[in-house]
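Sample pair:
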Amino acid sequence: MVHLSLPLRRFVAAASSPLLLNGCDRAVAVRAESYHPRARAITVTTVPLLVKEQRSTFPFLASAFAKGGTLDGKEVYAFSPSTLTVVEGDTIHLTLINPEDDAHSFVLPDFAVSLPGNKITEATYVARRVGIFPIVCAIQAHLPMMSGQLVVLSASSMAGADSASTTR
């Protein structure tokens, strides 16, 4: 038989029970609150990384964009940020900024928004399913480089994240 000291017995009891003992030996009930979906404002900007207009600035791009070059028929753009993380049930208010002339799009498996050049586009998306979902620009010349991901965490994994409730 193992004999535990009084402080260790209190620790073991607290760890195995929804009741925690505070320093005054009063029981304090701590219950994990369920996650409450939030509205999140996220801004995403389209960013040109390697585009035809840069050929005079970066001489190596002349051959890269030439017929048969590594970027023939392509341009390299990005979304910034490229990874968005939210929780299941969250409503995402997107501000999508396209500061340049070329058109883009912001496409998820069940959602698509056109991004005209030199425009700011507002859109709303509700993250209904847990998982990791690809974000792409559907303009063929921008694929596969212009991509990202939406990470949707489960609401159950966030229990207690809003705030722990304590009652006495």
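The longest strand covers residues 39-50.
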